[in-house]
Inverse folding.
C-alpha cells in the first residue's frame, strides 16, 4: 500500500454543526431505531455542545413530526411532498443532499434498516464522505471526530473507525443496539418545513405495489426469546422449546444449523447471518455459543444458557450458565411454570 | 442484454490477522474463496441471459490471486471477466472501492444491468453496491428477492423490506443488490472450467483508468480510517450453576420469578 506524500488540505470542522438523525418511517410510522439514534445523538451532542436535528422526508408527514418533539430534538426538518410518499433512492438522496448543504451537520446517524442501508451509502458517495456500517459503539472527541466502533469478520474483530478529514461523518446503527430515551410529556424543539424544487424529485424507480407480508412475529421485537440449538435432537422436540417460549410469553428462535435443517424458518435464526436480537431475556437451549451466534444476541439484557458441556463457549456470554441436560431441565421448568400459573390463577 | 456482476474474493475463514500499524488486514497466506453472497448475483445474471440473451461479465477488485474467483465464474458460465488490480488501490474503504470499481466498469463497456451481492463476509458493510450506482449515476435497489419481469427498458423486481414486500419497476441501466436465496446458485462445471482455461482475464490497473489521480484511490481516497482493531468484549458477569437437573430447574424457576418473567 502506498501513500501519496502530500499534505491533505485540512477541512474546517467548525463550519459543521449539529448531529442529525434520519427519521426512518413508512407512511409516517416512525421506526423505533429513530428514537434510539436520537438518544445517542443527544448524548454525543452534549459532549461537544451541538444541537440535535431530525430530518424527515415523506408525504403527508408533517403531523407525525410532533411525535419527534417529545424526544427533545432541537429541530425537526421536514420535506413533505407527494413524490416522497415512498422511499425512492434518487429523490431521497437529493432531498438529503439538500438538507446537508443547507444545515451542514457534523455527523449523520441512520438506522441500518432496509431503507437506511441503501440511502446512507448513496448519500455518502454523493457527499464524497465516509460511512461506517452497523456501529455498536459511538463516541465523540472534542474536535467533533466521531469514534465509530463496529464488528466485522463475523464478529471476530471489532474495528474503531474515524472520518478525520471529511464532513459530515456518517454512521448506520442497527435497531436495538442503542437505548431509546424516555418520551417527554411536553413537546419541545422547532419544526422547520423545508422546500426543494420539484424537478429534483423525479425517479427512475416506480413503486408499483406494496404487499404486506403474512402476519408473522418478528423475533427482533420479542421481549423474551428461547433459542433452540443443535442440542435438540429431533424436530419433534422443538415442541418442548416452543412450549417454554409460550409459557414465558416469548418466541422461539434458533441457531443456523436448525434453520439449515429446515426445522425452523430462516427469519427465526439469531446471529450474524440471521437476526440481531436484544430481548430482555434470552434462554439458549443446547447452543454452543459460536461467535457468529453470539454476535447476534450478546446485547440481550439477561442471558441464560443451558448446555451439558461445561466448556461450551456460550458460558462466556451467558450471565447464568446452567450445566446440565436440557432434556431434563426444560421439562422440569415447564412443569413448574405451569404449576405456578395454576397457583396464581 | 449486457449484464455485469461485481464479485469479491474473501478469506475462507473469519480468523484473520491485522497489521497493527496500518490497521489493514493481512490477506497473504489466508485461504480465499468467492464471497458466497456473490454466487446468487452470478446465478441471477446467468438466468436472465438464458431467457433474454446477451452476455454476462464479472468484475472484481483485489490482488492478483483474485483471478481465481473470475475463473470460477467462467466455470459457472460467465462470458467475460476483468480484475481491477494495482498496489495503489490497497487499503480502500467503501468510497474508494466503489469509485475504483465504477472506473473499472467504464473501461469494460456499457451494461444494462449491474448486479451485486447482498454483502461480503469480511468487510460486511453492504455499502459497495449503492455507492457504485451513485458513481455511475444510475438508479439502484437493494434487498432484491425476486426478478418478476424482464422488459426491454426496465425490470420489475420484488424487495424484501422486512415487514412488507415492495414491488418496483426500475429503468435500465440500473444496479441491483440481490438477496441470498433469490435463486439457487449452480455449481461450477468441470467441462466449462476446461473450456475456459485459457480465456483471458483482463487486468485493469490505475494507468488504464480514466481518472489517474492516485489521491482518489486506496488509502488516500478513503475518508474512513480504521484506527485500531481489537477482539470483541466478553461479558464478565458470569454465574455457573451446577447440580442435579431438578436443582437447576428449581433455581431457574426462582430466578425467572425474581426477574418477573414467570
Ligand atoms: C459466515 C458465517 C455466518 C454464520 N452465521 C450464523 C448465525 O447467524 N447464527 C448461528 O447460529 N450460526 C451461524 N453460523 C454457524 C456457527 O458457526 C455455528 O456453527 C452454529 O452457531 C452452531 O449452532 P449450535 O450452537 O446450535 O450447534 P453446536 O455448535 O453443534 O452446539 C450444540 C450444543 O448443544 C449442546 N448439547 C447437546 N446435547 C445437549 C443436551 N442434551 N443438553 C444440553 N446441551 C446439549 C452441546 O454441548 C453443544 O454445545 C455462521 C457461520 C459462518 C461461517
Ligand atoms: C474491520 C474492517 C471494518 C471496515 N469497516 C468499514 C466501514 O465501516 N466503512 C467503510 O467505508 N469501509 C470499511 N471497511 C473497508 C471495506 O471493508 C472495504 O472497503 C471493502 O473493500 C468493501 O466493503 P465490503 O467488503 O463491506 O463490501 P460490501 O459492501 O459488503 O459488498 C457488497 C457487494 O459489493 C460487491 N463488491 C464488494 N467489494 C468488491 C470488490 N472488491 N470487487 C468487486 N465487487 C465488490 C460485491 O457484489 C458484494 O457482494 C472496513 C474494513 C475492515 C477491515
Amino acid at each position: 500500500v502506498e501513500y501519496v506524500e502530500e499534505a491533505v488540505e485540512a477541512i474546517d470542522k467548525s463550519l459543521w454543526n449539529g448531529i442529525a438523525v434520519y427519521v426512518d418511517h413508512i407512511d409516517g410510522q416512525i421506526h423505533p431505531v429513530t428514537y434510539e439514534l436520537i438518544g445517542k445523538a443527544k448524548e454525543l451532542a452534549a459532549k461537544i455542545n451541538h444541537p440535535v436535528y431530525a430530518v424527515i422526508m415523506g408525504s403527508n408527514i408533517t403531523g407525525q413530526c410532533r411525535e419527534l418533539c417529545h424526544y427533545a430534538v432541537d429541530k425537526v426538518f421536514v420535506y413533505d411532498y407527494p413524490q416522497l410518499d415512498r422511499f425512492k433512492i434518487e429523490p431521497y438522496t437529493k432531498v438529503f443532499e439538500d438538507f446537508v448543504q443547507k444545515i451542514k451537520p457534523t455527523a449523520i446517524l441512520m438506522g441500518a434498516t432496509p431503507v437506511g442501508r441503501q440511502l446512507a451509502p448513496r448519500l455518502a458517495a454523493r457527499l464524497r464522505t465516509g460511512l461506517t456500517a452497523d456501529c455498536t459503539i459511538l463516541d465523540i472527541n472534542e474536535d467533533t471526530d466521531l469514534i465509530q466502533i463496529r464488528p466485522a469478520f463475523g464478529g471476530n474483530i471489532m474495528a474503531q473507525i474515524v472520518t478525520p478529514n471529511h464532513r459530515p461523518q456518517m454512521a448506520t446503527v442497527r435497531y436495538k443496539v442503542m437505548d431509546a430515551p424516555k418520551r417527554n410529556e411536553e413537546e419541545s424543539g422547532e419544526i422547520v418545513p423545508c422546500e426543494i424544487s420539484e424537478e429534483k424529485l423525479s425517479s427512475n424507480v416506480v413503486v408499483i405495489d406494496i404487499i404486506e407480508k403474512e402476519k408473522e412475529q418478528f423475533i427482533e421485537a420479542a421481549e423474551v426469546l428461547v433459542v433452540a440449538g443443535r442440542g435438540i435432537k429431533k424436530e419433534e422436540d422443538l415442541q418442548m422449546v416452543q412450549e417454554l417460549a409460550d409459557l414465558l410469553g416469548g418466541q422461539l428462535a434458533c441457531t443456523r444449523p436448525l434453520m439449515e435443517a429446515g426445522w425452523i424458518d430462516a427469519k427465526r435464526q439469531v446471529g450474524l447471518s440471521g437476526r440481531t436480537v436484544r430481548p430482555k431475556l434470552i434462554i439458549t437451549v443446547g447452543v454452543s455459543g459460536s461467535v457468529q451466534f453470539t454476535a447476534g444476541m450478546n446485547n440481550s439484557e439477561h442471558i441464560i444458557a443451558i448446555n451439558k458441556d461445561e466448556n461450551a463457549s456460550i458460558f462466556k456470554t451467558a450471565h447464568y450458565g446452567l450445566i446440565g441436560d436440557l432434556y431434563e431441565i426444560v421439562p422440569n421448568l415447564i412443569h413448574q411454570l405451569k404449576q405456578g400459573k395454576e397457583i396464581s390463577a | 442484454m449486457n449484464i455485469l456482476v461485481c464479485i469479491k474474493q474473501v478469506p475462507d475463514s473469519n480468523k484473520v490477522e491485522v497489521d497493527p500499524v496500518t490497521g489493514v488486514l493481512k490477506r497473504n497466506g489466508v485461504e480465499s474463496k468467492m464471497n458466497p453472497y456473490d454466487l446468487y448475483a452470478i446465478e441471477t445474471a446467468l438466468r436472465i441471459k438464458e431467457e433474454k440473451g446477451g452476455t454476462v461479465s464479472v468484475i472484481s477488485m483485489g490482488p492478483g490471486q483474485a483471478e481465481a474467483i473470475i475463473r470460477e465464474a467462467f466455470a459457472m458460465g460467465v462470458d467475460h471477466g476483468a480484475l481491477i488490480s494495482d498496489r495503489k488501490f490497497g487499503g480502500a474503504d467503501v468510497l474508494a472501492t466503489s469509485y475504483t470499481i465504477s472506473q473499472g466498469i467504464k473501461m469494460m463497456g456499457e451494461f444494462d444491468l449491474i448486479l451485486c451481492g447482498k454483502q461480503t463476509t469480511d468487510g460486511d458493510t453492504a455499502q459497495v453496491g449503492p455507492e457504485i450506482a451513485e458513481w455511475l449515476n444510475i438508479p439502484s435497489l437493494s434487498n432484491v428477492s425476486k426478478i418478476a419481469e424482464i422488459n426491454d427498458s426496465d425490470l420489475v423486481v420484488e424487495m424484501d423490506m422486512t415487514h412488507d414486500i415492495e414491488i418496483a419497476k426500475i429503468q435500465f441501466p440500473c444496479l441491483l443488490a440481490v438477496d441470498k436465496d433469490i435463486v439457487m446458485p449452480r455449481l461450477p462445471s468441470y467441462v466449462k472450467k476446461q473450456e475456459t482455461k485459457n480465456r483471458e482475464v483482463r487486468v485493469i490497473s490505475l494507468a488504464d483508468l480514466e481518472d489517474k489521480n492516485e489521491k482518489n484511490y486506496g488509502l488516500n481516497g478513503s475518508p474512513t480510517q480504521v484506527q485500531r482493531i481489537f477482539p470483541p468484549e466478553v461479558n464478565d458477569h458470569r454465574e455457573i450453576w451446577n447440580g442435579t437437573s431438578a436443582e437447576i430447574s428449581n433455581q431457574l424457576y426462582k430466578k425467572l420469578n425474581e426477574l418477573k418473567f414467570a
Notes: Residues 103 and 211 of chain B are 7 Å apart (CA to CA).
